[in-house]
Amino acid sequence: MDIPYTTTPREDTGLYNAKVGIWLFLASEVMLFGALFSSYILLRVGADWWPAPRSILNIPIGTFNTAVLIISSVTVVLAWASLKMNQLSKFKLYQGITILCALIFVGVKSVEYTEKWKHYEIWLNDGSNYSGHIDVNGKHNPFFYTHNKLVSEGVTEITFTKDPHKYGDPLPEKAAGGGEAHAAEAHAHESMVIKTEDIKRLSAFVPAHSTYFAIYFTMTGLHALHVIGGALVMFYLWITAGSWFRSRPEQFTNRIEVSGLFWHFVDLVWIFLFPILYLM
Amino acid sequence: MAATTTAKTHEAHEAHHHEHHDPGFWRSYVFSSDHKVIGIQYGITSLAFLFFGFILIALMRWQLAYPGKAIPFVGGLLEAVLGEVAAGGVMSGNLYNSFGAMHGTIMVFLAIVPLAFAAFGNYVVPLQIGAPDMCFPRINMASYQCFFLGGVVMFASFFVPGGAAQAGWTSYSPLATTIPTDGQTYWLIGMVLLITSSLLGAVNFIATIIQLRAPGMTWMRLPWFVWTQFVTAFILLLAFPPLEAAGLMQLVDKVLGTSFFLPTGLMTAGGAALADVSGGGSPLLWQHLFWFLGHPEVYVLILPAMGIVAEVIANNTRKPIWGYRSLVYSVLAVGFISFIVWAHHMYLTGMGTKISTFFQTTTMIISIPSVIILTCLFISLWGGSIRFNTPMLFALSFLPMFGIGGLTGLPLGFNFSDLLLHDTYYVIAHFHYVVAPGTIFALFAGVYFWYPKITGRKMNETLGQIHFWLSLICMNLVFYPMFKQGVSGMNRRMADGGATYLGVDDVGSGELVGTPQAMIDLNVNISHAAWALGLAQLPFIFNFFWSMFAGRRVENDNPWQATTLEWQTPTPPPHGNFDKEPVVYRGPYEYSVPGAKADFIPQNQPDPA
Ligand code: HEM
Ligand SMILES: [Cu+2]
């Protein structure tokens, strides 16, 4: 006996096996991201301090990436529809565009990430704190420095270049923070030499910086892994399309439908991630 | 009669089988995608982990009974393998904590769940619904491989610097994050692999049950075991991902130094070295995410066991299960409600009386369908001509043992009484009654029951009965005294068996304050009973291997005269299971139907026209 309903739908459920499988898988994915979204809410509600993301993340870039994913979710449907209409070359085109969109998205995201990893916040023992870029031992804009790392490398002083607009942009309601921000703005682009012993804490905008960045990197990182995974599968289907579609058109079209469903889910997650991390 | 026909088709099949080309050793036994082979792989691996988990606790019981004394026989070996934590053959506090955390983790995630769900489910479910295999055989294989890898990672964590995870199977942060061992990182990676494995399995089970039921196998004709597996798969599918998310977050905390679960101000008091931690996280968040899985997980532990018990009881009372529909609706209800009771594990965290009240209410509500299930199974015995064979004995004893476990859960479910009982040996006794003489006995029943289908031979009955009676007695000697210890306030995680809190006479009132010596002395009795319980498994282990070669051959494909489809196949079922697609004509438990020739009518037997 062979396994039935691998390509043709079962009568009473109206579905072929892989479609049931992908919907179930997506249900579990909803729970996975749902848990992260809930954690975001809980952590944010309980936080003493939450930055205004506007001053940290680049909204135009985020919007661009959102548009890229939305375009890809249109082309992924067009690709499937082309197969339904038996137009393999059109399929190739649309699937190609979808994969390209995925690559653009991941590329932009990695630029965003690396920018953050060499952008710093510093807290000094005298209570002041700034955001900006650092030079360590002549290295310009190095990655991932912390106070501990400075100490363990025996660095005695660093050069710190303040941002024109202090990161985090403390909201005016916070009286103490507001004053500081204005002071920081006044000293924009000013470089200063800071002794390691005067530093209380130094952190790039990496996950360990604060709860905001922790959840930002965890959620977008996990999402990016999904984008990469989806792109790999779609790429595999793209290069095997010709022979597969000619020998088993129905099965191949099903595969495209299933991978498309997954891709829509990935897009949908981003539609939620973008506002909560960039805008709110 | 049906049996002889299947025996004939069996012969026909053997002839047919030789025409297939042999897929070779690796493809047949190691990288097989056949659900039966995968079921057996899961079964053997999880039985091995069950044994390993028991060894851990057997060693810990020595430390509890005789704190600070060198462990006889194996103390030297422990020191040689694990080093300083077992210096002089004595179990240090750190080693005790490692063993404790890993005992729980291994028993839950590497022994019981894979045995109850993955092993029995894989082997039996496709057969019972008349399917040739699982929906996605290769995903099924990947599921086992993830599981195996997860097991290897967990096992390896014993040998990394600092030893295995030490913060309990619940891995509460901040403790789990701040204990200086890489073992916790291994634990988290292991968990991510195990969760991935069970997700792949769950998708497969549900899709298979929805899509691959044989013609005529309507939902209400499914053996109840299939229903329990179906609900279990849904629980795994939806409850595990939040733990995966939590695991990833704790992993990030541990590896990248974030503070998801570390509150502000926790670390800075420790010194400058810790100042790079941002704080601002929430330890409660971990507990919520953990128990969001953790509680549904206990139903993952129990539902398949109940399913096995129902199959064995129906077969050995020669009667239909009483209240099949109630059982189906109850198991569905349990599945749903199990998602909204989790915080009854957190009454003592001070999450607020309103929230406590909510979860106390849902906890009481969920006991209703659980009690319905148990009651149906009890009533099924009424008026049956019971065959007291080994599987049936295990299944029968499941009922009162699970009953004790469930009933003692009620005082834990009420906020006011749980505040006293939380984190005491009472909790240990409660859940071990459900899982050890409960689930594990049901699993034994399943092994004895389906063994003939898998091997073509029965396990030895005398050895089976010895195994059963000794296990039943020892289990109760182990876990019953723990209720007493718990009620007297003994904490569940003390490496010295509670000696720290040994009672002293209060000068003012003259009353005893602390744990009475008599309760601490019980540790010795319990430990002896636990080791005896270990010895009581020797007949089983011997029987298990010996019967493969020397057990009595089954006289036909259906040695228990059972109705469900797995018995209507050749023995053992070939690749593809059925020679031709079975057609189902009736419900799963048509035993002793008035007017019928035999006292059982297989599901695939047409009505005599
Ligand atoms: C149906 C009635 C049940 C009720 C009302 C109930 C209630 C509870 C409660 C309130 C706790 C938390 C105790 C505490 O930590 O203070 C608990 C612990 C536990 N229960 Fe149950 N339970 C029931 C059935 C089960 C079943 C069927 C299982 C598993 C097969 C189970 C397994 C566990 C486990 C493993 C723990 C301990 C978790 C830990 O702290 O390590 N329970 N139960
Ligand atoms: Cu619970």
- Strand element count of chain B: 2
If you compute it from the alpha carbons, what radius of gyration of chain A comes out, rounded to the nearest whole angstrom? 24 Å
Largest beta sheet of chain B: what is the strand line-up? 1-2
Q: How many helices of chain B does DSSP assign?
A: 19
The CATH topology label of chain B is Cytochrome C Oxidase, Chain A
Mean pLDDT of chain A: 89
- Rough outline of chain B: globular
Helix and strand element order of chain A = HHHEEEHEHEEHH
Largest sheet properties of chain A: 6 strands, antiparallel
Which CATH class of the largest domain in chain A applies here?
Mainly Alpha
Shape of chain A: elongated
Number of domains of chain B: 1
The proportion of strand residues of chain A reads 5-15%
Q: Please estimate the helix content of chain B.
A: 55-70%
Number of helices of chain A: 7
Largest sheet of chain B: 2 strands, antiparallel
Helix fraction of chain A by DSSP (H/I, runs of at least 4): 55-70%
CATH architecture of chain B: Up-down Bundle
Structural class of chain A: alpha+beta
Oligomer: heterodimer
> What would you report as the Rg of chain B, rounded to the nearest angstrom?
25 Å
Question: What do these coordinates show?
Answer:
The complex is a heterodimer of chains A (280) and B (609). Chain A has 280 residues and is α+β, with helices and mostly antiparallel strands. Chain A is built from 7 helices and 6 strands. The relative contact order of chain A is 0.16. By secondary structure, chain B is mainly α. In chain B, 63% of the residues lie in helices and 1% in strands. Chain B has a two-stranded antiparallel ribbon with strand order 1-2. In chain B, a hairpin with a 6-residue loop joins β1 (504-505) and β2 (512-513). At the A-B interface, α1, β6 and α6 of A face α8, α9 and α10 of B. The structure holds protoporphyrin IX containing FE and copper (II) ion. Protoporphyrin IX containing FE binds at residues 170, 298, 301-302, 344-345, 363, 367, 370, 406, 409-410, 412-413, 418, 421-422, 427, 430-431, 434-435, 439 of chain B. Protoporphyrin IX containing FE is lined by residues 170, 298, 301-302, 344-345, 363, 367, 370, 406, 409-410, 412-413, 418, 421-422, 427, 430-431, 434-435, 439 of chain B.
